[in-house]
Design goal:
The complex is a heterodimer of chains A (about 575) and B (about 375). With about 575 residues, chain A is of the alpha/beta class. Chain A is about 35% helix and about 25% strand. Classes of the chains: A alpha/beta (about 575), B alpha/beta (about 375). Chains A and B meet through helix 14 and helix 15 of A and helix 1 and helix 8 of B.
Chain lengths: ~575, ~375
């Protein structure tokens, strides 16, 4: 165990009259370790990091960093830490080397030391080849690496990284992780904040935050210990797995259940669940096996378990007969060029009714471009996208009436109240008279908006914003749903609630196209297209993709392993 | 179907502006400030100026002249200078804008029936005000001269000029300024509100949401045009009411024709705003673009300086300026009951500008979608 670098006691921070962003958080951070600051968006991660830098002062409690109090000795702290904010202030119009020079000036790095330091950092971050390139022209992963290099110019004792993994492809993310791991060997203390629970699992020690409160502090195995022996995997399911998930979740003894490829992952409550007969539940080949507990299982357990399996929204939806032979959403050779740059090349797939199809890939890989071409926001350079037989760019309002759209940033009108948002989307989709009143009343009931109707959408907590966005997207009972990164950054309970609705709707025959860079979310899909550098490099069910890369080294690969292996294969094939 | 969609969009646009505290501020703040600043502070009249008198005559007629100057309401104070040097020093220090220098033989010359001279020294650094002061002083001196020749019962050699200011007999400055402001406020509000509308949605990410909805492009455009026009018409009305009831400007022409022309004016302004909005990616760019258009539009409209005074090559530029035409209409309707054909002559160009800008905005809007 290393030296204690940060000591926090009863740290509280408020902004305005909202509930405290941090509520009596106590804990410590050691040198020579990676400490994960884990929690969904809005949990207080960034606030805590900024308090550690001394850029902000707590309303209550104290923070000591490297023995200095942030209230009185902020300048001394700032001289010996490295801080990489979420959007590191790189100057996009300067080259990599000029950025380094600028930060070296700001940090007062003597000219004589620069060549050696720059050389070391550029080698370390593997950016040497790009030293002359403008920072604005770097990929997301390379930008993060450059940001890291700038934060390391004067070797800090404590390195604070605010969500370094956001917007970075899995390969760069692993590189970044390896680099940071190397730093800890030199005794540097690292704080790595993240909303991704798989990232958290790899940390030496974690502080788990939710809504400003510290839920847990300790090592990841200590956390997963609490669900030890309660995690199971139901495999070999015959037929559709979503109705089975629903049945299982309705058992009060089951705390949590999610779809994981062809299987269902279950967490039982402390009292244990019913004695399920796997064969009776899911067909003769079904088995229930104990599984290795994961971070997320424990997190959900800590939050009191996920929602039930029933979706009132789906119950209220009309049944559309699933039809495997007929594609609802279809991409035929979709290609999009912006000047010389090919954002998407020859992308082809078809989604039959009642399926969830995922476009998986890092930011900037072309999944958003593909998505936009399919829902009519972008015009393909070549090829065509069809929904229910219509070309959404050319066809009428009637065609667009059949799709529901929900974007990453919950594109609601923040200044409008909940009721006004619902009324607007009802109107835009042509609902009027009693039908409109019924639908709005139904959504209000299902999503429990009653007491919130007069509140501005902007002031809603993240989870409720997400519910409202979903309500607005399904008001007009669309046949197909287009979801763009629907649950990135939300807490696992809200994510489960969301997917319960989606799963229910899919069982009623709604077709779903979803983009995600979130490996866990990909597991919910029936089929996935892996998009990398504008091309679809693999297409299949999550289990098929994972199986395709299984080998002696990785008998049971995760989605991320599969992604990395497939990307490497495709790069090797391209080079050959 | 389409009217349900359009209504929803228009209601949303209005709510989005009115529920946003910053939006409300934009609707209330600048118009009030503009009304107060332009109608009270930015006056082109010359009032409250100080005059110096160097009376080296001290006779009957020079006393008479000084008293008349003293009696004029335009001048705040009259003080006498002892010497030419003192006079120079005080003009130099801007303690007075003008000095009246009466020579030692002034009264004697008049008594003898010889031409008498008065020198007026003006501060050329404030050329505009100085010119106006010179005009006032000339009037006073001429009036005295006219009376003198009448007293002598000599045949009047000079022709008395009696000016009458039609349409604004007392040359009340606010009669000129407030109708101007009616047109200017609609430009300000219409431009800013429209310019922000699409840019705001782009910035918040709600724009894609609109584009995937069944709303068609022309419906979105109409939905974006009508709310700023309603808001513009509201401000137009408030300013017209203020002009009539607060500033007492006479409304001599047809209100109906004023509004009729106003619709086309607002359309053309909203067209420019929409064009700027379609061009900008962020709200900041949109606001900057709006002001980039507005400032030259004000200067090239005849608002402060007559278009006829501008150089020949610049004058054609003003033909593309909607404010130019509507200024003529507003001032005409207020002060002189502008006839229908004159209003029509100024409204047709507005319709053309509206057609061009709205067409360009729609084109740009569609092209941005590629």
């Amino acid at each position: 165990m290393g030296e204690e670098f940060v000591r926090m006691s009863q740290v509280t921070k408020r902004f305005g009259s909202a509930p405290p962003a941090l509520d009596a958080v106590s804990g410590s951070i050691q040198g020579g370790e990676i400490t994960g600051l884990v929690g969904p968006d809005g949990a207080g991660k960034t606030t805590l990091i900024r308090l550690m830098t001394g850029l902000m002062l707590p309303d209550g409690g104290t923070i000591e960093v490297l023995g200095f109090n942030t209230r009185t000795q902020a300048a001394r702290i700032q001289a010996s830490i490295g801080y990489m904010p979420q959007r590191f202030g790189l100057y996009e119009d300067l080259s990599v080397r000029e950025n380094l020079d600028l930060y070296a000036d700001l940090r007062g790095l003597p000219l004589s030391e620069r060549p050696a330091v720059f050389d070391e950092l550029l080698t370390f971050t593997d950016l040497k080849r790009f030293a002359g390139r403008l920072a604005g022209k770097l990929s997301g992963g390379m930008k993060q690496k450059l940001g890291l290099a700038c934060a390391l110019l004067r070797k800090p004792r404590l390195l604070l990284l605010d969500e370094p993994g956001v917007g970075v492809d899995p390969i760069s993310r692993r590189d970044l992780w390896t680099m940071v791991r190397d730093l800890t060997r030199e005794g540097i203390g690292v704080v790595w904040s993240t909303a991704y629970l798989d990232e958290a699992e790899a940390c030496d020690r974690i502080l788990l935050l939710n809504q400003g409160k510290l839920l847990f502090s300790g090592t990841p195995p200590q956390l997963t210990e609490r669900v030890e022996g309660r995690v199971f995997k139901l495999t070999g399911i015959e037929g559709r797995r979503r109705p089975i998930l629903r049945k299982v979740l309705d058992d009060p003894g089951v705390l949590d259940g999610v779809i994981q490829g062809e299987a269902i992952r279950l967490v039982l409550g402390a009292a244990g669940g019913r004695d399920w007969n796997a064969a009776e539940l899911a067909g003769p080949a079904a088995r229930i096996k104990p599984a290795e507990p994961r971070f997320e299982d424990a997190f959900v357990d800590m939050l009191g378990g996920g929602p039930g399996g029933r979706s009132k929204l789906a119950d209220a939806a009309a049944l559309r007969v699933p039809d495997e032979s007929h594609a609802v959403i279809e991409a035929k050779g979709l290609t999009k060029r912006f000047g010389d740059f090919v954002a998407a090349r020859d992308i082809t797939f078809a989604i039959p009714r009642g399926q969830i199809f995922g476009l998986l890939g890092p930011n900037g890989a072309g999944k958003s471009t593909t998505f936009k071409m399919l829902c009519g926001l972008l015009k393909p350079t070549e090829g065509e996208g069809r929904m229910a037989g219509f070309d959404l760019r050319r066809d009428t309002a009637a065609a667009r009436n059949r799709l529901g759209y929900m974007a990453q940033k919950f594109s609601l009108y923040g200044d409008l109240s909940v009721a006004q948002n619902l009324a607007f989307f009802a109107g835009v989709y042509g609902l009027s008279g009693p039908h409109r009143r019924e639908r709005i009343a139904l959504m209000t009931e299902i999503f429990e908006f009653g007491p919130l109707l007069g509140m501005s959408a902007r002031d809603l907590p993240l989870g409720l914003k997400q519910r409202l966005a979903l309500a607005c997207a399904v008001l007009h009972e669309p046949e197909a749903l287009f979801l763009d990164e629907p649950t990135s950054g939300v807490d696992p309970i809200t994510r489960r609630e969301f997917w319960t609705h989606i799963n229910g709707l899919v069982e009623k025959g709604v077709t779903v196209l979803v983009t995600t860079h979130f490996m866990d979310e990909a597991e919910y899909c029936d089929r996935i297209s892996l998009i990398y550098r504008g091309r679809s490099i693999a297409l299949g069910s999550p289990d098929e993709l994972k199986a395709s890369v299984a080998g002696p080294g990785t008998p049971d690969p995760t989605m991320e392993d599969a992604f990395i292996a497939l990307v490497k294969n495709s790069e090797a094939a391209e080079a050959a | 179907m389409w009217h349900t969609r359009l209504k929803a969009l228009i209601v949303k646009e209005l709510l989005a502006i009115l529920r946003d505290p910053r939006g409300r501020l934009i609707l209330i703040g600048p118009p009030v400030v503009q009304l107060l600043v332009f109608s009270y502070a930015a006056t082109l009249e010359v009032k409250n100026v100080d005059i110096l008198v160097l009376d080296r005559d001290a006779g009957k007629w020079s006393q008479e002249l000084v008293q008349r100057i003293d009696g004029a309401p335009t001048f705040r104070s009259i003080s006498s200078a002892e010497s030419l040097d003192a006079l120079r020093a005080r003009i130099d220090r801007q303690q007075a804008i003008a000095a009246v220098h009466i020579g030692p033989t002034f009264s004697r010359d008049i008594a003898a029936g010889r031409p008498a001279d008065v020198q007026i020294i003006l501060d050329g650094r404030r050329s505009n005000a100085a010119q106006i002061v010179a005009g006032y002083l000339n009037q006073i001196v001429n009036a005295l001269a006219a009376e003198l020749s009448a007293q002598r019962r000599a045949p009047a050699r000079s022709i008395a000029v009696v000016p009458r200011n039609w349409f604004n007999p007392n040359l009340i400055f606010q009669w000129f300024m407030v109708p101007n402001l009616v047109a200017a406020v609609a430009l300000l509000i219409g431009l800013v509100v429209t310019a922000l509308s699409i840019a705001r949605e782009r910035e918040l990410g709600t724009f894609d949401q609109l584009m995937v909805s069944p709303l068609r492009t022309h419906e979105i455009l109409i939905g974006k045009i009508i709310p700023p026009m309603l808001i513009g018409a509201f401000h137009l009305t408030v300013y017209i009411l203020a002009a009539v009831f607060v500033f007492g400007v006479p409304l001599r022409g047809s209100l109906l024709m004023l509004y009729g022309s106003g619709v086309f004016y607002l359309l053309s302004v909203v067209g420019v705003g929409l064009f700027i909005s379609a061009l900008s990616m962020t709200q900041q760019q949109a606001i900057l673009g709006a002001f980039l258009f507005m400032v030259p539009a004000m200067l090239l409209s005849g608002f402060a300086t007559p278009i006829e005074n501008m150089p020949g090559w610049l004058q054609p530029v003003t033909l593309a300026n909607p404010l130019r035409y509507f200024l003529a209409v507003v001032k005409g309707v207020f002060l002189k009951d502008l006839p229908f054909h004159e209003i029509a002559r100024n409204t047709v160009p507005l319709a053309v500008i509206a057609l061009v800008t709205l067409g360009a905005a729609a084109w740009l809007f569609r092209r941005r979608m590629e």
